[in-house]
Amino acid sequence: MTVPRIPFARPTFGPEASAAIARVLESGWVTQGPEVAAFEREVAVYVGSPHACAVSSGTSALHLSLLAAGVHAGDEVITVSHSFIAPANAVRYCGATPVFVDIEPATFNIDPARVASAVTSRTRAILCVHQLGLPCDLTSLLEIARRLGLMLIEDAACAIGSEILRGDKWERIGRPHGDAACFSFHPRKLLTTGDGGMMTTARPEWDAAFRRWRQHGMDLPDLARHAASTVVVERYLDLGFNYRMTDLQAAVGRTQLAALDSMLARRREQAEHYRESLEDIAGLGLPSERPGVHTNWQSYCVTLPEEADVREVMQTLLDHGIASRPGVMNIHEQPAYPAGSWRMSGGLAVAERARRRGLMLPLFHALSPADQGDIAAVLRHALVDS
Ligand SMILES: *Cc1c(COP(=O)(O)O)cnc(C)c1O
Questions:
Q1: How many other CB atoms sit within 10 Å of the CB of residue 385?
Q2: What CA–CA distance (Å, rounded) separates 342 from 226?
Q3: Tens digit of pLDDT for each residue in 310-331?
Q4: Which conformational region is residue 33 in: left (phi greater than 0), alpha (psi within -120 to 50 degrees), or beta?
Q5: Bridge partners of 343?
Q6: Is the CB of 129 under 6 A from ligand 1?
Q7: Backbone phi, then psi, for 68, in 5-degree steps?
Q8: For ligand 1, is residue 197 a contact (CB within 6 Å)?
Q9: CA–CA distance, 108 with 83 (Å, rounded to integer)
Q10: Contact at 8 Å (CB) between 342 and 97?
Q11: How many CB atoms lie within 10 A of CB 256?
Q12: Residue 37 CA to ligand 1 centre (angstroms)
């Protein structure tokens, strides 16, 4: 087996990341501690949130946010099927049922016009996904959530550094605009800690619950116990989890956050390069930002013309040493989602077409303009010349 010359994604770590890990190892404190606390403060400042709580993954962030929103057995949460599987799984961890609504064809994000008719007496929350980093229509979703008395949780797993225009000010995703926003730091995302996640919220009582639940329901953090000059014995107040981020991860995350603005600028240039090289191919749909929205360009997903065979196009790319991935999955099409484990409202035709026609091209910090030129040329060859 040969590895493709151009991988699909690859994280970039500077020498400062290795130095940060060495510093943590030498400190003797490797799990959740001072580095996690510093990373949380820095992310809170970056996104403009009063609180930020680090956890082990984006999925654990979603789980704890839904618990804070009061999602329990028998409840329903309105979300999208057209997404990585984690948000719907998190709904099911709470014993609740995901109710899938379709996406907008232009943005691949939840269609706010379809939300109100999906609401029942059991609906507790809306879980919107900023797909591939492109912000949802938060203004409409917030209006609907407030009007109907629902919590709004943002799956911002992909959206660190993305922005929306509110009034005349650009605000970062994670401020948060809903009741909580959940980030992932998996290596497929723009900012990575290997694995990791973060919840941001403006509600102090939610932040307090997050801090307890990520650490087994314990009433004081390890750091506080360690620093106490009198003997303290912890108590366990409610059912918690081990969802801690480690200081090793947080130290890497801090170096990634320091580099984020340059990573965002580079991604924006790369997306522009793809657009210029591909926009004249007939029938090929390219991702774009609507007015009032800045994506972080985490991924570049094109929509192939109806007559193209996605597998064949991917094979042609691979034959030229270029890795690619199918478009975003649909959760309701997976074996883990048998009938009865979910509900839908209004059909999922847009999601099904998006899945069938989607193709993700390589996009990562070290991808060179020459590589992008090669990718565009092979894609053109696959679609136009054959
Ligand atoms: C990556 C991702 C997640 C899960 O994040 P993990 O950190 O891998 O748990 C959740 N939702 C979406 C939309 C994602 O892309």
A1: 6
A2: 45
A3: 999 999 999 999 999 999 999 9
A4: beta
A5: 99
A6: yes
A7: -65, -30
A8: yes
A9: 9
A10: yes
A11: 24
A12: 22
